[in-house]
């Protein structure tokens, strides 16, 4: 048995909790691997493929990082909340050892979360192009750049052209990501059991554009318009997909990922209970 520990190194309490967990696991003959400090070693790759469990100690951002590390491998993840609201994380630091012990004993509920697979095309300043692949648990986002100019783009779903839009951008989210950027842009809150995608225009320059949902098998394509070129950016779970900052996006294709992210919890707190707690004024109640 081996456990991969992902930590928010900026939080001393999370680092302290990780050391306590490491000692507790070692006493029980369980091996551990630690994630690196991303700020000190931003380019170091991490491989949890030989691990049976991932424990995230931080906030929702740390859990998203753990999901990126795991990718489509479906290694189960536990999120221990050292953040603020902790919508994705499932347990408090006070229950850290008990929760991990229950996970190792197979006594936790497993929630399967649909992911996104992203293929994005960019053009370099010299006119050559390249394609990048990306993973997301929450969302893909097209955003205007620092210049502040609105962007113009076409949206299609499974070969059907939806519209040519102008605005601040566009979000394609999973059900999990529906409570993140997509919600802030006016999209709906969607139960994790939904396995399609949530598509939300961001500040569109029209009153007609609305959020819509896709089927699980649909493919969303966003193509930048050459009628009104403006600098723009592509993001996956808030991380830039650009290899070089001068690269300009041309097209993105988003579909359901080939594997899910598996989140473990005691299932005492329901999705709708979390929605009430976080989004309807019942924080701390």
Summarize the structure.
This protein is of the alpha+beta class and 285 residues long. Helix content is 17%, strand content 36%. It is globular and about 65 Å long.
How many structural units, i.e. domains? 2
C-alpha-based Rg, rounded:
20 Å
CATH-level-2 architecture of the largest domain: Sandwich
Helix content: 10-25%
Number of helices: 5
Residue ranges: pLDDT <50 for 5 or more in a row? Answer: none
The CATH class of the largest domain: Mainly Beta
Walk me through the structure:
The protein is of the alpha+beta class and 285 residues long. The chain has two domains: 133 residues, Probable inorganic polyphosphate/atp-NAD kinase, domain 1 (Rossmann fold, 3-Layer(aba) Sandwich), CATH 3.40.50; 141 residues, Tumour Suppressor Smad4, CATH 2.60.200.30. The protein has five helices and 18 strands. The strands form four sheets. A six-stranded antiparallel β-sheet has the order 7-6-17-14-9-10. Strand 15 and strand 16 form a beta hairpin. The longest helix has 16 residues. The two termini are 37 Å apart.
